[in-house]
User: Which sequence fits this backbone?
């Protein structure tokens, strides 16, 4: 047996860092929890991925959470998927932004429900676009609302249809205005009606005119009356006539008079009969004189 097996936790903490780094996987595997726990952050930082990959589950989890943060990101990136799955929730919570950014998609997708829940928002924000894009839909579905809010706009913009498909109403509702603004036309068109209607009105108003003008008529038709009311006059002015004609009678009636006043002559001229008959007297009165001429 290695001499290290006879050392107390206090004595283990006194070992030279190079001596710890020189321990073989076999020697490390016979250390007790107390001995592992007795190692200092500096000693832990000297361990290689090969050494860590050789630890048994109880030994790996004996490493203090704060010491996990001392491990080099290159070592973390070379941990086996099996070892990553053994990390405790507290250890996952202690991972640094540099460490999580170094993790592979295989490592991230191997995390358990409890481990995913323990990832700090600051670490979620540190994920690269490629990491986010490679996350399994099952992982996305487990993210809390605070974790969703932590995603960077670039990360939101690369979410795939399969990832967006599993997002529930609370997750969609939790998205910030800047996140909703970063959604592409393709992403918005891929949302189900309950997801579209989960977008908060203030966030919907943040979508750029250019993006709004590109989304399908089907998506526009899925907006709730409250969301139609929330559209800005500039957004309404950017709508195509096909989009406007796709609106139902209740949606047309929900347009504010300021929005009708913003209608262009081309928009008015190309309204279909159903859309025109859906206009209320106050809406008709709000249409500009120039635009009204398009009706005659």
Assistant:
């Amino acid at each position: 047996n290695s001499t290290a097996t006879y050392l107390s936790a206090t004595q283990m903490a006194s070992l030279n860092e190079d001596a710890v780094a020189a321990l073989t996987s076999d020697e490390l595997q016979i250390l007790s929890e107390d001995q592992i726990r007795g190692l200092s952050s500096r000693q832990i930082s000297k361990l290689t991925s090969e050494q860590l990959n050789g630890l048994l589950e109880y030994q790996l989890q004996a490493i203090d959470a704060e010491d996990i943060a001392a491990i080099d990101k290159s070592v973390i990136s070379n941990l086996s998927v099996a070892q990553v799955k053994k990390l405790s929730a507290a250890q996952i919570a202690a991972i640094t932004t540099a460490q999580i950014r170094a993790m592979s998609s295989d490592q991230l997708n191997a995390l358990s429900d409890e481990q995913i829940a323990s990832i700090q928002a600051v670490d979620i924000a540190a994920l690269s676009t490629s990491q986010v894009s490679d996350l399994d839909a099952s992982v996305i579905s487990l993210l809390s609302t605070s974790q969703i809010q932590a995603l960077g706009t670039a990360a939101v913009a690369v979410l795939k249809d399969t990832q967006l498909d599993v997002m529930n109403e609370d997750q969609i509702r939790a998205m910030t205005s800047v996140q909703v603004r970063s959604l592409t036309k393709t992403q918005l068109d891929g949302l189900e009606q309950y997801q579209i209607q989960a977008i908060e009105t203030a966030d919907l108003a943040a979508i750029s005119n250019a993006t709004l003008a590109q989304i399908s008529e089907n998506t526009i038709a899925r907006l709730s009356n409250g969301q139609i009311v929330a559209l800005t006059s500039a957004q309404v002015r950017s709508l195509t006539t096909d989009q406007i004609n796709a609106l139902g009678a209740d949606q047309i009636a929900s347009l504010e008079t300021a929005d009708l006043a913003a209608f262009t002559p081309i928009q008015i001229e190309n309204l279909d009969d159903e859309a025109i008959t859906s206009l209320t007297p106050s809406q008709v009165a709000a249409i500009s004189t120039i635009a009204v001429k398009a009706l005659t």
Observations:
- The two ends are 98 Å apart (CA to CA).
- The CA atoms of residues 5 and 31 lie 6 Å apart.
- DSSP finds 36 helices and no strands in the chain.
